[in-house]
């Protein structure tokens, strides 16, 4: 187990992709169910201690429950809404006097329309496995993949970089980042970011 208590195994052992694409996307967001493989000892122990379980029984219950713990989360497709913005603040500055960022973000009806599908799937998961819901986090959460703000496009009026990840305003500046991706699907953007970075690196190599 590493210092974060997550274990030394792949954190994701699989997923359910049945609703990744389809005609339904005219009306609601695509979704992906991710099955996590984190070692849950810390979460299990915290819950048991809060219930007053201590000593040898605590150790026994941690082993018993951790071996039967399933952590499922769902990723929703996000459209590139122009109302979702990151702007320099007009009132707040950091220690260097640089404007801090003001983020405006809303979960739109397109995304919310998929929630009923997710709720139905989760009920089916619990039923099929004969499980018990330990914790139900129904709120919207960030999935930690930074995308957008320096988006790619064909027009310098509404984008920051072109298809090469080259900045419109500075032809010798390339942005090798997933920030050039304007919207988030349900699949992690890392490999796409790597591919874009390799392409940019090859262009830079030719031009130096």
TrEMBL record:
It comes from Budvicia aquatica. The keyword Transcription does not apply. Keywords: FAD, Flavoprotein, Oxidoreductase. Belongs to the GMC oxidoreductase family. One of its GO terms (molecular function) is oxidoreductase activity, acting on CH-OH group of donors. Residues 80-196 form the Glucose-methanol-choline oxidoreductase C-terminal domain. Its cofactor is FAD. Gene3D superfamilies: FAD/NAD(P)-binding domain. SUPFAM superfamilies: FAD/NAD(P)-binding domain (SSF51905). The keyword Flavoprotein applies. It comes from the Bacteria. PANTHER family: PYRANOSE 2-OXIDASE. This is Pyranose oxidase.
């Amino acid at each position: 187990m590493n210092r974060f208590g997550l274990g030394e195994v792949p954190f994701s052992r699989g997923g359910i992709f049945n609703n990744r694409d389809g005609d339904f996307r005219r009306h609601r967001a695509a979704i992906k169910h991710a099955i996590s493989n984190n070692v849950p000892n810390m979460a299990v122990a915290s819950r048991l201690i809060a219930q007053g379980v201590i000593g040898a029984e605590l150790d026994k219950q941690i082993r018993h429950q951790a071996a039967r713990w399933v952590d499922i989360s769902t990723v929703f497709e996000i459209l590139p809404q122009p109302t979702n913005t990151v702007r320099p603040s007009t009132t707040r500055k950091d220690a260097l006097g640089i404007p801090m960022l003001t983020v405006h973000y809303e979960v739109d009806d397109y995304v919310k329309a998929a929630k009923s599908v997710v709720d139905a799937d989760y009920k089916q998961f619990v039923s099929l496995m004969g499980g018990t819901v330990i914790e139900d986090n129904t709120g919207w959460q960030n999935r930690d993949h930074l995308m957008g703000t320096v988006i790619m496009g064909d027009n310098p009026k509404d984008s920051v970089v072109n298809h090469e990840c080259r900045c419109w305003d500075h032809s010798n500046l390339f942005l090798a980042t997933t920030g050039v991706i304007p919207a988030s699907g349900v699949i992690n953007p890392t490999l796409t970011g790597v591919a874009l970075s390799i392409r940019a690196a090859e262009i830079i190599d030719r031009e130096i």
